[in-house]
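tool=predict chain=A
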Amino acid sequence: MVESLQIQLKKGVLEMCVLALLSKGDNYAYDIASRMAEAVGMGEGTIYPLMRRMQNDGLVSTYLQESGSGPPRKYYKLTKSGAQALKSQISDWQTFETAVRKILGDVT
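tool=predict ok
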């Protein structure tokens, strides 16, 4: 079965969106997942594997911080490589978006 365009688009920009959120400040995965769910409808199950992969790729680093409401939380921080990746992905996204808008403008 072919995935819907919405699902494919979300998968394609998920990393860029998470990097963008982290560019505004360190955060923990549950909060990132909640913000992504609210903004674009992505679930928790998608975020955790992505965060692990991004850590393995050197785009984010982690540290533990005490929590007033339970065990320490694992926080994610954007690395220098992650900031460069975000900049590149934004540029790619803008180029792609411009091309798609031009094509759609020719249709409507």
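The mean pLDDT is 90. The first strand starts at residue 27 and ends at 28.
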